[in-house]
User: What shape does this take?
Amino acid sequence: MTLATIAFSGSRIDRADHIRQSPEALAGLMNHRARLLGLNGLDPVLADDGSLAWGSLADAAPDAELVFLGLSDERGCFAAVPAAGSVAPPNPRLWQGLGALSPEDLATYGGARSMVDWHARHRFCARCGNATSLAKGGWQRNCSNDACNAEHFPRVDPVTIMLVEHENSILLGRQPRFPAGNYSALAGFVEPGETIEEAVARETFEEAGVRVRDVTYVMCQPWPFPSSLMIGCHAYADDPAVTIDKNELDDACWFTRAQVEDAMRAAQAGGRGEAFGAPPPFAVAHHLLNWWVRRG
Amino acid sequence: MTLATIAFSGSRIDRADHIRQSPEALAGLMNHRARLLGLNGLDPVLADDGSLAWGSLADAAPDAELVFLGLSDERGCFAAVPAAGSVAPPNPRLWQGLGALSPEDLATYGGARSMVDWHARHRFCARCGNATSLAKGGWQRNCSNDACNAEHFPRVDPVTIMLVEHENSILLGRQPRFPAGNYSALAGFVEPGETIEEAVARETFEEAGVRVRDVTYVMCQPWPFPSSLMIGCHAYADDPAVTIDKNELDDACWFTRAQVEDAMRAAQAGGRGEAFGAPPPFAVAHHLLNWWVRRG
Assistant: This one.
């Protein structure tokens, strides 16, 4: 498993932190060579060949806030924060377009989407309610109220997502919003005051009533809807009895290795297995299940 | 390494998510049996035996917002959000008091501190600037503006902290604020659009100019100042040449296994090794270094 095979990871843009810290260096990059990521609200604009479309800074609205994504071939790459009220719900055809992007483009888009979405939702200071403005190339927002002066930083939300194993079977669940017959790994946000391992144990017990032991980290994925860090883990359960939290899940049950293998083969081809439909290749749960199948 | 040995993890309070979701269940717990965590601003109030002091809900200011920490012995445990403007800078004697707490008390306090601090800094809606109010026992804040109605959730910031190894030596750095001669693991926030492994590689190169490979997860720690998730990793470097980012670090250099072993023995006794002063047992960097020493 290489990193680049996990969707939304593997961007080739150099984040160039030293540029963010220097207003002069940043201003020096905002020239005719700079590239502006084509966005329609939060959705990507695609070129004719299906890659991300890039324009120039002249394409941005004159008052648009610009996020410095980093350097590519010594050119500054930027994305414009959508105007207030212009952020539409995700386009249902979004996934189709994303499926055509190269892994590197997908990662660049995901990171940019999280950033401009965060700016669009953080125009005001959570501490005092006054307006904030973009700073450090978009890696900070500053409160405009001199009596407050709070600094705010882009947010990343750690989420645990876990394969729980018992006697060569895996516990999966389905949320009400899933297509019929589809199941995926249980997941939940890490809360203040707990470790990744504690969050895995708490969420598995909350959602399915199953106690786990021996939690191990497997892999992770940045997920740009809006800005999660999906932390993929594996754990064992001694007692397979399931008690479902019906507020969270429609169902949760155990699938055998043969059922998972069949579902993963089907998912690779965009279809559904005999026992259940597995998560698509975009999702880290797909990679976790593949990891488990290959691990044998 | 058991989880409970890492400071701020291992709380025994049951977070009881189902109670947060039910206004009736929550109201039913807010009775004379409920416990209120003793806080002086964000600092803990300690009982005569050095444990956390608990009072009753009657001890809270009449208009205080209350965070539901969870259940202990079927009693609701709460913490009050400090009044606006009452949050003082950390008391320099804070660490002394924390050092006397049991691991379970330390974890309970850390989680509570992160939560009430988040509430105190999020009284307004980042999307529209209007006032927010506490909801779901403190696990959410809701915007009061009907045209916005944004929901806000407590924040956890993932941070990578890494031991980089080259030929049986470890790369450590010192920030200007460290006591003279002290070194610790390099660290930095995970950004939108990158994996844990990518963040480790980026931060190590930014801060010390060192390229890494084979990043692996080792352990993590919730860090309540204000609410980080410290994700401890190990990586290898092939080229030990160091180029220090002087904006971030005073120094960064390699320490041999013998030097690290000596510093860890000294740190355990509260002292400094021959070559450098190691991070104290509160810090996950301390546990990472111990893990590396024991791994041999």
